[in-house]
């Protein structure tokens, strides 16, 4: 990317795994990996922001509302029951907090202040029937999912809104193509001091080769 392209107008951080995965894998795939990728692209993002503006869109989830961050053992969010998504909720909450910390840092750099240069946003696509679900589902489950869940096309509409809508301000959380409040346990996603703690944890985990 850095060698072949002179600009990067929109970056959507969408890759991730579901709540059935191992806690360490969930934390690394959904949050730490994307943060490393964005860090590597930082020079190109900042160059684009100065010239024409850049948008970074993080595909989070409404499940972040019940999430919290284990700052001591983020890799070890053990399920308390079979359908517990504690690790998934943590990773999706972290995306929102990281998004806001990243925007603050980028906007503090010379030539990058204000809405026109940098907008970072997080979205929830709703429950869409994508390959985040494990392969080999029974036919009746696939049929039910097709009936009940959104299509990938429907889920992508809020991503498109975050990527191009001029009315959406940086730092927003969107779902169903509306800007809505984010939360998390203790309302941590709206507290700048918590964003900073999450940023420090992210850097620590990115430097840790235990799960590389």
Tell me about this structure.
With 212 residues, the protein is α/β, with parallel strands linked by helices. The chain has 6 helices and 5 strands. It has a single domain (10-211), classed as Rossmann fold (3-Layer(aba) Sandwich). The chain has helices spanning 23-40, 42-51, 86-107, 139-148, 152-164, 192-207; strands at residues 10-13, 54-59, 118-124, 173-175, 178-180. The protein has a 5-stranded mixed beta sheet with strand order 1-2-3-4-5, with helices on both faces. Strand 2 (54-59), helix 3 (86-107) and strand 3 form a beta-alpha-beta unit. It is globular, with a radius of gyration of 17 Å.
Helix and strand sequence: EHHEHEHHEEH
β content, as a range? 5-15%
Strands, total number = 5
Give the CATH level 1 class. Answer: Alpha Beta
| Structure annotation, total helices | 6
Mean pLDDT across the residues is 89
Largest sheet strand order: 1-2-3-4-5
User: What spatial form do the alpha-carbon principal axes imply?
Assistant: globular
If you consult CATH, what is the topology? Rossmann fold
- Helix content range: 40-55%
The end-to-end span amounts to 22 Å
CATH architecture: 3-Layer(aba) Sandwich
**Backbone structural class:** alpha/beta
Number of domains: 1
Radius of gyration: 17 Å
How is the biggest beta sheet arranged? 5 strands, mixed
How would you name the CATH homologous superfamily?
NAD(P)-binding Rossmann-like Domain
What are the low-pLDDT stretches, counting only 5+ consecutive residues below 50? none
